[in-house]
């Protein structure tokens, strides 16, 4: 399968788990991201071409930020995908998703603000996971997402990549431009 197809498929796959509203746009987002230059830059600009009930509305796409976060964090994600502790790391990510999902559903003031990356062990695979979380989170917050929403999307993205280490590695390598 060609690199462009792999990137498009992964962009759709990641949109399905993290940003379902952008699934239909995912192939076009992947194509523009691959093209780079003005096509990629246009992905980050808010669009006011969408009409809402009260006139034009600004729409900010999240998937370009996800791709940029993965690209930036790739040097930490790739070792995670090859780690002998992949199962433990994946389990920690799944636990974080469950916790984030539960806390988003509750509005209890007794829950402290979470900093999930800071609560992980400090061993090598978890250090890489922390760095990955921080980088992707930073990108998502740059799109205006709340901390909790950015955390949940970040964990879902990482979960999807870790659940398919071979495919995730192939995707990231193609994202870096290897034989696209």
- The proportion of residues in beta strands is 5-15%
Number of helices: 8
CA-based gyration radius: 17 Å
Helix content: 55-70%
Distance between the termini: 10 Å
Shape: globular
The number of distinct β-strands equals 2
In sequence order, what are the helices and strands, one letter per element? HHHEEHHHHH
Q: How much is the average pLDDT?
A: 83
Find the structural class using helix and strand composition: mainly alpha
Q: Runs with pLDDT <50, length 5+?
A: 107-115
Describe the protein's architecture and organization.
- The protein has helices at residues 3-18, 26-35, 37-44, 63-82, 86-105, 124-141, 147-163, 165-175; strands at 47-52, 55-59.
- It is mostly helical and 180 residues long.
- It has a two-stranded antiparallel ribbon.
- A hairpin with a 2-residue loop joins strand 1 (47-52) and strand 2.
- Helix 1 (3-18) crosses helix 7, helix 4 (63-82) packs antiparallel against helix 6 (124-141) and helix 5 (86-105) packs antiparallel against helix 7.
- It starts with a helix and ends in a 5-residue tail after the last helix.
